[in-house]
Design goal:
Radius of gyration: 23 Å
Order of helices and strands: HEEEEEEEEEEEEH
Shape: elongated
Largest sheet: 2 strands, antiparallel
Structural class: alpha+beta
Helix content: 10-25%
Number of strands: 12
Strand order of the largest sheet: 1-2
Number of domains: 2
């Protein structure tokens, strides 16, 4: 009987030390790489990677009564709850995803909504979520990735200009000078490699 009590006591001590280690994660507003870096004792804490310097923040629907300035990018504390703004939607992993035309740092922060092929247009000096080349643009004719335009039959597809190549990631790539068969093959191979990654 005595040995059983010792086993339970050790198990309780180990469990308590594990909880202490997890609870010692980064506090709200602290730098992070993933959500596991953040203090799991805080309900609905997440690593907001949609900003240039990721930090631990409160995700959508989190209780922000105690800290109204700690909601993820795109959310504000409304009636004591982090709520995604009108330019954002509740995304997965506790972040607000940016709609078309809203600033982004990478595609993971963009909301695909009803559009199938949305990426972060990093070719712009101020990147925004946009419809990739090859994506459907009906109803969003001004939201194609730069320099693509909404053309195709009945303005329904974002297409790169004829002097550009469309890459697998939906971006437009320009070749300086005349297109040669060798350049076309090289672009095709690079596109294939990107698709395989």
């Amino acid at each position: 009987m005595y040995q059983l009590k010792v086993v339970f006591a050790v198990a309780c001590m180990l469990n308590a030390s594990v909880k202490t280690v997890n609870a010692a994660g980064a506090a709200l507003g602290s730098p992070c790489t993933t959500t596991t870096d953040c203090d799991d004792a805080v309900t609905s804490i997440t690593c907001d990677t949609t900003i240039a310097s990721p930090k631990c923040a409160l995700g959508p629907t989190a209780d922000c009564t105690a800290d109204q300035q700690s909601c993820v990018n795109g959310a504000t504390c409304v009636s004591n709850e982090c709520t995604c703004g009108t330019d954002y939607t509740d995304g997965t992993n506790g972040i607000c995803k940016a709609k078309l035309g809203i600033p982004c740092i990478d595609t993971a922060g963009c909301d695909v909504g009803t559009v199938v092929f949305v990426i972060c247009d990093t070719s712009l000096s101020a990147p925004v979520c946009a419809i990739a080349a090859g994506g459907t643009c009906s109803g969003a004719t001004t939201n194609c990735i730069s320099p693509a335009t909404c053309t195709g039959s009945s303005n329904t597809i974002c297409e790169c200009p004829s002097t550009y190549e469309t890459l697998a990631d939906g971006s437009c790539y320009i070749c300086s000078g005349a297109m040669t068969a060798g350049v076309s093959v090289a672009i095709a191979l690079m596109t294939l490699l990107v698709a395989l990654m």
